Amino acid sequence: MKPYIYLTRKLPEEAYQKLVGRFDVHMWEREDQAVPHDVLLSQAAKADALLTVVSDPVTQEVFEAGKRLKVVANMAVGYDNIHVDAATEKGVYVCNTPDVLTETTADLTFALLLAAARRVVEAAEFIKDGKWQSWSPFLLAGHDVHHKTIGIAGMGGIGEAVARRAKGFGMEILYHNRSRKPDAEEALGAQYCSFDELVERSDFLVAMTPLTPDTKHLFNADVFKKMKSSAIFINASRGAVADEAALAEALKNREIAGAGLDVFAEEPISADHPLLALENVTALPHIGSATMETRIKMIEICVDNIERVLTGQKPKTLVNTILLEP
Ligand code: GLV
Ligand code: GLV
């Protein structure tokens, strides 16, 4: 029997061509809708490999059902949607797609920062809604980005790529991270500081941390109170690193000036969510890595990892590397 592969989203056949014929490939038939969890469970029970996306909760149950499961290739750098401990316990490889999306995600993060500061989305809606009466001195006046202070919380690859863009804008660059980044300090003049100092000094506070038990609600009511009232909060990592109720309050009460959000605790966020009703929120539907070039590369990495595992080779971008230790 050929190994059974289940893709949780409809993908164009050329994207997984090299699996066709050698493996028994099945997929959820919708591109725009998540696979229901019961379908994922019944497919996992048959599958040797799963190709998953960020919105699929790959729970302990999935690994319990997946008696033949050998690899889960997640089309994302983040893997907070996967119960990695359960995978490791069952000896299932979990793979992600690091590196290929770093510059792309940094571009979007900076686009979001610029859009939030300069009210780009609001201005675009304004003109298309036919509201433009005349040039006026403070029409849609926002905040400067150049020469302001950016504070990056989480200086991984994407954080550094954001810092490089900030340098081009003449910004003062602060960062906080578990470990110091001497290269970024030297090349970009980035200054390491404590989390509190980062929060207090930043004009743009950018969340770039993965979601873990330690970072859940890291950006809470206290943080928003400590921020400058002119500051803008940017999040392109995971929604749950911020306490959204506290964020909505802080924005409503003008404790902070604005927010640019590409991610939400629940995705898709419901259209009547309080955050979406605020005029000082620029919201995007989790498109950080969404370019044709990068999404194709991410799929290729997933496909490659699946092929490697199913042909007895080591996966290339393994999350639970402990499985390869002797
Ligand atoms: C997307 O959010 C990712 O983690 O790649
Ligand atoms: C504005 O468009 C200006 O010319 O200052």
UniProtKB/TrEMBL annotation:
Family indicated by similarity: Belongs to the D-isomer specific 2-hydroxyacid dehydrogenase family.
GO MF terms held by the record: glyoxylate reductase (NADPH) activity; hydroxypyruvate reductase [NAD(P)H] activity; NAD binding
Keywords: Oxidoreductase
Keyword S-adenosyl-L-methionine found: no
Residues in D-isomer specific 2-hydroxyacid dehydrogenase NAD-binding domain copies: 110-288
Gene Ontology CC entries for this record: cytosol
Protein name, per record: 2-ketogluconate reductase
CDD domains on file: GDH (cd05301)
SUPFAM superfamilies from the UniProt entry: Formate/glycerate dehydrogenase catalytic domain-like, NAD(P)-binding Rossmann-fold domains
Organism expressing this protein natively: Mesobacillus campisalis
Annotated Pfam families: 2-Hacid_dh, 2-Hacid_dh_C
Every D-isomer specific 2-hydroxyacid dehydrogenase catalytic domain range: 16-320
